[in-house]
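Case study B.
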Amino acid sequence: MNIKETIKETYLEVLEQTGSELLVPELTDDVVLLESGLDSLGFAILVATLEEKLEFDPFTMMDEPLYPTTFGEFVSIYEKMNPNNQI
Amino acid sequence: MDLIIVTGASKGLGLAICKRLLESNYKVVGIARSKTDEFQALENENKENLVYVQYDFNNTKDIHELVKSITKEYGNIYGLINNAALGHDGVLGTMHESQISELIRVNVEAPILLTKYASRSMLMKLRGRIINIGSIIASTGFNGLSVYGATKASLNGFTKSLARELGKAKITVNTIAPGYMQTAMTAGLQGEKLESIKRRSPLGHLATVEDVAGTVVYLLSNDAKNITGTTITVDAGSTA
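Model:
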């Protein structure tokens, strides 16, 4: 499973865990995160769960704070910061 | 068996908290700068359920790794007791800047960072307890403790907002504000000053570390599930 699929799967798990509902028909790259169904606490749970699954947290690794707006930006941060990427 | 992290675990209040938690069937990770003989003795009696982790909270940059290593080894964290603190006293006008920074780093920045990472375990499980050890000095003030008092008052503010933030995830956040206790931190408080504090207390004596440890166990329990964002004062009535 690639990172994007893992993020999508985990997103849906957290949605269910927090009793929230997906507010868009599908999680596409242009979906605005805070309009997608998870609130800010939900995203904290998502980042924590992803850290457990992927064994890294890109937001902690960054030197400067960066807050993604869309689902596509969120995924690309994980892809770019993945320490297992071969450079 | 729920896992609890206690900082400043090797002596005084932290050690008393570890003892009570073990008696109450929690698994405890005790973090401290150095291990005391008393902690070692407690560890010998509780080999299965008490673990020592060496860490100095003057170093804030490795706190994330510290929490990751604890959860990797021992599993998810149910409770965090932010007890470690420095108690430098002195008149502000002559206190060295490095000591002011150190107090703020160890007493405020470190517990906030530790809470940030430890709360992730709780967020994933949608259950947890965060207990910040404050002080009555945060609200009463004390000559020579302005910076210490500022750090403890800051924990009260942290508690209140974080309780609002984490409530939806069924995580409670509270402060315990002990009064004067006879520990290494208050060892400088002797003689007439100490006697006067005892005399003025409605109960005629000081609160003990055991009293505070008992309050910690209560806040961790199911009975305290609806207590969040508050301060429980344990001071034998000194601030009544």
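Chain A has one domain: 3-81. The remaining cases will be described in the next quarterly update.
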